[in-house]
Protein backbone atom coordinates (compact mmCIF):
# COMPACT_ATOMS: atom_id res chain seq x y z
CA UNK A 1 0.00 0.00 0.00
CA UNK A 2 2.87 2.40 0.78
CA UNK A 3 4.21 2.02 -2.73
CA UNK A 4 0.80 2.81 -4.26
CA UNK A 5 0.14 6.06 -2.32
CA UNK A 6 3.64 7.55 -2.51
CA UNK A 7 3.41 8.50 -6.22
CA UNK A 8 -0.04 9.99 -5.65
CA UNK A 9 1.23 12.20 -2.82
CA UNK A 10 4.20 13.33 -4.92
CA UNK A 11 1.89 14.23 -7.83
CA UNK A 12 -0.33 16.34 -5.55
CA UNK A 13 2.69 18.20 -4.15
CA UNK A 14 4.14 18.86 -7.61
CA UNK A 15 0.74 20.02 -8.88
CA UNK A 16 0.42 22.51 -6.02
CA UNK A 17 3.92 23.88 -6.70
CA UNK A 18 3.20 24.20 -10.42
CA UNK A 19 -0.02 26.11 -9.74
CA UNK A 20 1.81 28.55 -7.46
CA UNK A 21 4.51 29.17 -10.06
CA UNK A 22 2.02 29.72 -12.90
CA UNK A 23 -0.15 32.15 -10.95
CA UNK A 24 0.24 35.83 -11.85
CA UNK A 25 2.42 37.79 -9.47
CA UNK A 26 -0.38 40.29 -8.92
CA UNK A 27 -3.93 40.83 -10.14
CA UNK A 28 -3.74 44.57 -9.45
CA UNK A 29 -3.50 46.60 -12.70
CA UNK A 30 -0.51 48.95 -13.01
CA UNK A 31 -1.15 52.46 -11.74
CA UNK A 32 -1.11 55.04 -14.55
CA UNK A 33 1.35 57.85 -13.91
CA UNK A 34 -0.38 61.07 -12.86
CA UNK A 35 0.10 64.08 -15.09
CA UNK A 36 2.56 66.61 -13.69
CA UNK A 37 2.20 70.40 -13.76
CA UNK A 38 5.16 72.67 -13.00
CA UNK A 39 4.57 75.28 -10.30
CA UNK A 40 3.80 78.81 -11.41
CA UNK A 41 6.71 81.19 -10.92
CA UNK A 42 9.25 78.39 -10.60
CA UNK A 43 12.00 77.22 -12.93
CA UNK A 44 11.79 73.73 -11.45
CA UNK A 45 10.30 71.12 -13.77
CA UNK A 46 10.22 67.37 -13.18
CA UNK A 47 12.04 65.21 -15.70
CA UNK A 48 11.74 61.64 -16.91
CA UNK A 49 14.53 59.59 -18.47
CA UNK A 50 14.40 58.20 -21.99
CA UNK A 51 15.50 54.81 -20.64
CA UNK A 52 12.54 54.63 -18.25
CA UNK A 53 10.19 54.96 -21.22
CA UNK A 54 11.87 52.17 -23.14
CA UNK A 55 12.57 54.47 -26.10
CA UNK A 56 15.28 53.92 -28.67
CA UNK A 57 18.20 55.86 -27.22
CA UNK A 58 20.32 55.27 -30.33
CA UNK A 59 17.88 57.41 -32.36
CA UNK A 60 18.12 60.46 -30.07
CA UNK A 61 21.45 61.82 -31.37
CA UNK A 62 20.34 61.71 -35.04
CA UNK A 63 17.12 63.57 -34.08
CA UNK A 64 19.01 66.33 -32.27
CA UNK A 65 21.60 66.64 -35.04
CA UNK A 66 18.81 67.00 -37.57
CA UNK A 67 17.11 69.70 -35.48
CA UNK A 68 20.34 71.67 -35.21
CA UNK A 69 21.01 71.31 -38.93
CA UNK A 70 17.49 72.61 -39.67
CA UNK A 71 18.03 75.95 -37.90
CA UNK A 72 16.15 75.03 -34.72
CA UNK A 73 16.42 77.23 -31.63
CA UNK A 74 14.84 74.85 -29.13
CA UNK A 75 13.11 71.49 -28.78
CA UNK A 76 11.16 69.91 -25.92
CA UNK A 77 9.33 66.62 -25.47
CA UNK A 78 6.98 66.22 -22.49
CA UNK A 79 5.43 62.91 -21.40
CA UNK A 80 2.70 63.22 -18.77
CA UNK A 81 3.97 66.74 -18.23
CA UNK A 82 7.54 65.72 -17.42
CA UNK A 83 10.46 66.83 -19.56
CA UNK A 84 12.06 63.93 -21.39
CA UNK A 85 14.06 65.93 -23.94
CA UNK A 86 15.03 69.61 -23.72
CA UNK A 87 17.67 71.00 -26.06
CA UNK A 88 18.75 74.47 -27.23
CA UNK A 89 20.67 75.14 -30.41
CA UNK A 90 22.47 77.82 -32.40
CA UNK A 91 23.10 80.22 -29.52
CA UNK A 92 19.55 80.07 -28.12
CA UNK A 93 19.02 79.60 -24.36
CA UNK A 94 16.25 78.48 -22.02
CA UNK A 95 15.50 82.06 -20.91
CA UNK A 96 15.53 83.56 -24.43
CA UNK A 97 12.13 84.44 -25.92
CA UNK A 98 11.20 83.56 -29.50
CA UNK A 99 8.15 84.33 -31.60
CA UNK A 100 5.18 81.96 -31.91
CA UNK A 101 4.01 83.40 -35.25
CA UNK A 102 0.71 81.73 -36.23
CA UNK A 103 1.10 79.07 -33.55
CA UNK A 104 -0.19 81.90 -31.34
CA UNK A 105 -3.55 81.75 -33.13
CA UNK A 106 -4.38 78.94 -30.72
CA UNK A 107 -3.92 81.34 -27.80
CA UNK A 108 -6.62 83.55 -29.34
CA UNK A 109 -8.93 80.57 -29.84
CA UNK A 110 -8.44 79.44 -26.24
CA UNK A 111 -9.05 82.89 -24.75
CA UNK A 112 -12.19 83.17 -26.90
CA UNK A 113 -13.51 80.05 -25.18
CA UNK A 114 -12.71 81.53 -21.77
CA UNK A 115 -14.50 84.78 -22.64
CA UNK A 116 -17.51 82.80 -23.80
CA UNK A 117 -17.69 80.75 -20.58
CA UNK A 118 -17.32 84.00 -18.61
CA UNK A 119 -20.45 85.27 -20.38
CA UNK A 120 -18.80 88.07 -22.34
CA UNK A 121 -19.50 86.77 -25.84
CA UNK A 122 -21.01 83.99 -27.94
CA UNK A 123 -19.05 82.67 -30.90
CA UNK A 124 -22.25 82.34 -32.92
CA UNK A 125 -22.87 86.11 -32.72
CA UNK A 126 -22.05 88.41 -35.60
CA UNK A 127 -18.68 90.11 -35.36
CA UNK A 128 -20.45 93.42 -36.01
CA UNK A 129 -22.42 92.92 -32.77
CA UNK A 130 -19.15 93.70 -30.99
CA UNK A 131 -17.16 95.83 -33.42
CA UNK A 132 -20.02 97.70 -35.08
CA UNK A 133 -20.63 97.75 -38.81
CA UNK A 134 -17.93 98.86 -41.21
CA UNK A 135 -15.12 96.75 -39.73
CA UNK A 136 -14.72 95.39 -43.30
CA UNK A 137 -15.25 96.94 -46.71
CA UNK A 138 -17.70 94.17 -47.65
CA UNK A 139 -21.32 95.08 -48.44
CA UNK A 140 -23.24 95.38 -45.18
CA UNK A 141 -25.41 92.35 -45.86
CA UNK A 142 -22.29 90.23 -46.47
CA UNK A 143 -20.41 91.63 -43.47
CA UNK A 144 -23.35 90.74 -41.26
CA UNK A 145 -23.03 87.09 -42.27
CA UNK A 146 -19.64 86.84 -40.55
CA UNK A 147 -19.78 85.41 -37.03
CA UNK A 148 -17.03 85.01 -34.47
CA UNK A 149 -17.07 81.32 -35.29
CA UNK A 150 -16.21 82.11 -38.91
CA UNK A 151 -13.11 83.97 -37.71
CA UNK A 152 -12.08 80.95 -35.62
CA UNK A 153 -12.57 78.52 -38.52
CA UNK A 154 -11.00 80.62 -41.33
CA UNK A 155 -14.31 80.79 -43.20
CA UNK A 156 -15.03 84.55 -43.12
CA UNK A 157 -15.23 84.75 -46.91
CA UNK A 158 -12.88 87.75 -46.96
CA UNK A 159 -10.05 88.08 -49.45
CA UNK A 160 -6.92 86.29 -48.21
CA UNK A 161 -4.74 87.54 -51.09
CA UNK A 162 -4.31 91.11 -49.86
CA UNK A 163 -1.57 90.58 -47.29
CA UNK A 164 -1.48 90.83 -43.50
CA UNK A 165 -3.19 94.23 -43.22
CA UNK A 166 -6.48 93.79 -41.34
CA UNK A 167 -7.73 97.37 -41.64
CA UNK A 168 -11.27 97.73 -42.97
CA UNK A 169 -10.20 98.79 -46.46
CA UNK A 170 -8.13 95.61 -46.81
CA UNK A 171 -10.87 93.23 -45.63
CA UNK A 172 -12.76 92.70 -48.88
CA UNK A 173 -15.59 90.34 -49.79
CA UNK A 174 -14.87 87.26 -51.90
CA UNK A 175 -17.54 84.75 -50.85
CA UNK A 176 -20.33 84.38 -48.32
CA UNK A 177 -19.12 83.49 -44.85
CA UNK A 178 -19.04 79.74 -44.28
CA UNK A 179 -18.69 78.81 -47.95
CA UNK A 180 -14.92 79.20 -48.44
CA UNK A 181 -11.93 78.23 -46.28
CA UNK A 182 -8.92 80.53 -46.54
CA UNK A 183 -5.98 80.99 -44.18
CA UNK A 184 -6.24 84.67 -43.26
CA UNK A 185 -5.00 86.99 -40.53
CA UNK A 186 -8.52 88.37 -40.11
CA UNK A 187 -8.75 85.96 -37.15
CA UNK A 188 -6.98 88.69 -35.13
CA UNK A 189 -10.27 90.59 -35.07
CA UNK A 190 -11.30 88.12 -32.37
CA UNK A 191 -8.83 89.92 -30.12
CA UNK A 192 -10.72 93.16 -30.80
CA UNK A 193 -14.02 91.39 -30.09
CA UNK A 194 -12.69 90.14 -26.75
CA UNK A 195 -11.43 93.61 -25.82
CA UNK A 196 -14.80 95.18 -26.63
CA UNK A 197 -16.81 92.43 -24.94
CA UNK A 198 -14.77 92.40 -21.71
CA UNK A 199 -14.05 96.12 -21.47
CA UNK A 200 -10.35 95.30 -21.07
CA UNK A 201 -7.37 95.39 -23.38
CA UNK A 202 -6.74 92.17 -25.28
CA UNK A 203 -3.43 91.63 -23.50
CA UNK A 204 -4.90 92.45 -20.10
CA UNK A 205 -7.65 89.85 -20.46
CA UNK A 206 -5.23 87.32 -21.97
CA UNK A 207 -2.87 87.76 -19.01
CA UNK A 208 -5.53 87.39 -16.32
CA UNK A 209 -7.55 84.61 -17.93
CA UNK A 210 -4.80 82.37 -19.31
CA UNK A 211 -1.16 83.45 -19.09
CA UNK A 212 -0.96 84.05 -15.34
CA UNK A 213 -3.07 81.02 -14.45
CA UNK A 214 -0.66 78.56 -16.06
CA UNK A 215 2.56 80.39 -15.25
CA UNK A 216 3.53 81.50 -18.75
CA UNK A 217 5.91 84.34 -19.44
CA UNK A 218 5.99 86.46 -22.58
CA UNK A 219 4.28 89.38 -24.30
CA UNK A 220 2.47 90.41 -27.47
CA UNK A 221 4.51 92.54 -29.86
CA UNK A 222 2.86 94.58 -32.59
CA UNK A 223 4.19 93.83 -36.04
CA UNK A 224 3.42 97.27 -37.45
CA UNK A 225 1.44 95.63 -40.25
CA UNK A 226 -2.16 96.78 -40.32
CA UNK A 227 -3.98 97.48 -37.07
CA UNK A 228 -3.70 95.33 -33.97
CA UNK A 229 -1.78 92.52 -35.67
CA UNK A 230 0.50 91.22 -32.94
CA UNK A 231 2.73 88.21 -32.38
CA UNK A 232 3.38 86.43 -29.09
CA UNK A 233 6.97 85.98 -27.87
CA UNK A 234 7.92 83.67 -25.00
CA UNK A 235 10.42 81.11 -23.79
CA UNK A 236 10.12 77.56 -25.03
CA UNK A 237 9.00 76.33 -21.61
CA UNK A 238 6.12 78.80 -21.68
CA UNK A 239 5.05 77.35 -25.00
CA UNK A 240 5.34 73.90 -23.40
CA UNK A 241 3.06 75.01 -20.54
CA UNK A 242 0.37 75.92 -23.04
CA UNK A 243 0.85 72.59 -24.82
CA UNK A 244 0.45 70.80 -21.49
CA UNK A 245 -2.82 72.67 -20.87
CA UNK A 246 -4.01 71.48 -24.29
CA UNK A 247 -2.98 67.88 -23.56
CA UNK A 248 -5.13 68.03 -20.41
CA UNK A 249 -8.22 69.35 -22.25
CA UNK A 250 -8.01 72.86 -20.86
CA UNK A 251 -7.42 71.83 -17.24
CA UNK A 252 -4.38 73.07 -15.33
CA UNK A 253 -3.63 71.07 -12.19
CA UNK A 254 -7.31 70.75 -11.29
CA UNK A 255 -8.39 74.21 -12.45
CA UNK A 256 -10.55 74.11 -15.59
CA UNK A 257 -9.20 77.13 -17.48
CA UNK A 258 -11.47 76.64 -20.51
CA UNK A 259 -14.43 74.28 -20.34
CA UNK A 260 -13.90 70.85 -21.83
CA UNK A 261 -16.83 71.01 -24.27
CA UNK A 262 -15.42 74.11 -25.96
CA UNK A 263 -11.92 72.68 -25.86
CA UNK A 264 -13.03 69.48 -27.60
CA UNK A 265 -14.85 71.54 -30.25
CA UNK A 266 -11.69 73.61 -30.73
CA UNK A 267 -9.62 70.49 -31.44
CA UNK A 268 -12.21 68.86 -33.75
CA UNK A 269 -13.02 69.44 -37.44
CA UNK A 270 -14.93 72.74 -37.43
CA UNK A 271 -16.40 72.85 -40.95
CA UNK A 272 -16.73 70.62 -44.01
CA UNK A 273 -14.29 72.43 -46.32
CA UNK A 274 -10.94 71.84 -44.58
CA UNK A 275 -11.41 68.70 -42.49
CA UNK A 276 -7.98 69.23 -40.92
CA UNK A 277 -8.85 72.49 -39.18
CA UNK A 278 -10.58 73.16 -35.86
CA UNK A 279 -10.76 76.55 -34.13
CA UNK A 280 -7.33 77.85 -35.24
CA UNK A 281 -5.80 74.42 -34.49
CA UNK A 282 -4.54 72.06 -37.21
CA UNK A 283 -5.67 68.42 -37.02
CA UNK A 284 -3.86 65.31 -38.21
CA UNK A 285 -5.35 62.01 -39.37
CA UNK A 286 -8.25 63.42 -41.39
CA UNK A 287 -9.34 62.37 -44.88
CA UNK A 288 -8.28 65.62 -46.57
CA UNK A 289 -6.73 69.03 -45.94
CA UNK A 290 -6.13 72.48 -47.41
CA UNK A 291 -2.83 74.33 -47.30
CA UNK A 292 -2.48 78.05 -46.53
CA UNK A 293 -2.76 80.32 -49.57
CA UNK A 294 -4.40 77.70 -51.80
CA UNK A 295 -7.93 76.58 -52.58
CA UNK A 296 -6.78 73.08 -53.50
CA UNK A 297 -8.03 70.12 -51.47
CA UNK A 298 -5.42 67.42 -50.88
CA UNK A 299 -6.36 63.84 -50.02
CA UNK A 300 -5.01 62.15 -46.91
CA UNK A 301 -3.49 63.16 -43.61
CA UNK A 302 -1.44 66.30 -42.98
CA UNK A 303 1.54 64.40 -41.53
CA UNK A 304 1.42 60.70 -42.50
CA UNK A 305 4.52 59.93 -40.40
CA UNK A 306 2.92 61.27 -37.19
CA UNK A 307 0.24 59.74 -34.93
CA UNK A 308 -3.24 60.28 -36.36
CA UNK A 309 -4.62 61.93 -33.23
CA UNK A 310 -2.16 64.86 -33.14
CA UNK A 311 -3.61 68.37 -33.02
CA UNK A 312 -1.19 71.19 -33.67
CA UNK A 313 -0.39 74.86 -33.28
CA UNK A 314 1.68 75.70 -36.35
CA UNK A 315 3.40 79.00 -37.08
CA UNK A 316 5.40 80.66 -39.80
CA UNK A 317 8.94 79.33 -40.24
CA UNK A 318 8.22 76.09 -38.40
CA UNK A 319 7.11 77.13 -34.93
CA UNK A 320 5.41 73.96 -33.63
CA UNK A 321 3.26 72.69 -30.77
CA UNK A 322 2.30 69.06 -31.33
CA UNK A 323 -0.19 67.58 -28.84
CA UNK A 324 -0.47 63.77 -28.94
CA UNK A 325 -3.17 62.47 -26.55
CA UNK A 326 -2.61 58.78 -27.37
CA UNK A 327 0.97 59.06 -26.10
CA UNK A 328 0.39 61.67 -23.35
CA UNK A 329 2.98 63.75 -25.19
CA UNK A 330 3.64 67.35 -26.11
CA UNK A 331 6.41 68.28 -28.56
CA UNK A 332 7.70 71.84 -29.04
CA UNK A 333 9.97 73.18 -31.76
CA UNK A 334 11.02 76.83 -32.13
CA UNK A 335 13.47 78.33 -34.58
CA UNK A 336 14.14 79.70 -38.02
CA UNK A 337 12.57 78.11 -41.09
CA UNK A 338 13.91 74.59 -41.45
CA UNK A 339 14.28 74.85 -45.21
CA UNK A 340 12.63 77.95 -46.61
CA UNK A 341 10.12 80.54 -45.43
CA UNK A 342 6.66 79.02 -45.03
CA UNK A 343 3.24 79.93 -43.67
CA UNK A 344 2.69 77.15 -41.15
CA UNK A 345 2.97 73.69 -42.68
CA UNK A 346 6.05 72.44 -44.50
CA UNK A 347 7.79 69.25 -45.54
CA UNK A 348 9.79 69.61 -42.33
CA UNK A 349 6.82 68.29 -40.30
CA UNK A 350 6.90 64.93 -42.05
CA UNK A 351 10.69 64.57 -41.92
CA UNK A 352 10.82 65.60 -38.26
CA UNK A 353 8.17 63.04 -37.31
CA UNK A 354 10.09 60.26 -39.04
CA UNK A 355 12.96 61.00 -36.66
CA UNK A 356 10.77 61.47 -33.57
CA UNK A 357 9.00 58.17 -34.35
CA UNK A 358 12.36 56.39 -34.53
CA UNK A 359 12.94 57.48 -30.92
CA UNK A 360 9.53 56.82 -29.37
CA UNK A 361 8.45 53.64 -31.18
Automatic annotation (TrEMBL):
Domain annotation Beta-lactamase-related: ranges: 74-332
PROSITE patterns: PROKAR_LIPOPROTEIN
Keywords of this entry: Signal
Signal peptide extent: 1-22
Entry protein name: Beta-lactamase
Species classification: Bacteria, Pseudomonadati, Bacteroidota, Flavobacteriia, Flavobacteriales
Amino acid sequence: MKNIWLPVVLMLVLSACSSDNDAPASTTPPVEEAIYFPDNGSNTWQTKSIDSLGWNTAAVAPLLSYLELKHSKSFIILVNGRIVVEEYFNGHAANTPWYWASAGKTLTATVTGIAQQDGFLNINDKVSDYLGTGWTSAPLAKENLITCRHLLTMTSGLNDALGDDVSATNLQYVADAGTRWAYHNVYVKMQDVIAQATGQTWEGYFNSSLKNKIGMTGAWTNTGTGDDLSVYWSTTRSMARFGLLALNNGNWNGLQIVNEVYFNDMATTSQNINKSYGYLWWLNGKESYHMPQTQIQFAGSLIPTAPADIFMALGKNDQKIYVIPSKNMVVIRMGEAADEENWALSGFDEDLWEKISAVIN
